[in-house]
Design a protein that fits this description.
123 residues, mainly alpha, Serine Threonine Protein Phosphatase 5, Tetratricopeptide repeat
Length: 123
């Protein structure tokens, strides 16, 4: 983690480094820090699906379900066939008790999963 921070102190606009540090923060359960880094990535590259997707997961882990849904929806605007985003948005809808919406997203994820050979099934 400290190596990523040192690299970012030299050049804070390194998208890959920011993404990697954010991922590490998230793996450590440091979701606020992960969200901050993913937000910086998005500010630098507004079409970065990975940053939106991973920030959505971090929001979900923090219980900020509306922001999570917003990020997963943005991923789907950028990549309409992203099975992971449908699956994770479905999971977030499930957490909110929006079961009809969850079923729609889970079904779409499974349909895409069949065509992409097991993306969601590997979760």
């Amino acid at each position: 983690m400290s190596d990523y921070t040192k690299a970012l102190n030299l050049d804070g606009s390194r998208i890959k480094t920011l993404n990697n540090r954010a991922f590490c923060y998230a793996r450590l359960g440091m979701y606020s820090e992960a969200i901050e880094d993913y937000t910086t990535v998005i500010r630098l590259d507004s079409k970065n699906c990975h940053a939106y997707h991973n920030r959505g997961i971090s929001y979900d882990k923090k219980g900020d379900f509306e922001r999570a849904i917003s990020d997963f929806t943005k991923v789907l605007e950028l990549d309409k066939d992203n099975a992971h985003a449908y699956f994770n948005r479905g999971s977030t809808h499930d957490s909110l008790g929006a079961y009809d919406k969850a079923i729609v997203d889970y079904t779409r994820a499974l349909d895409l999963d069949r065509s992409t050979k097991g993306v969601v099934g590997d979760k």
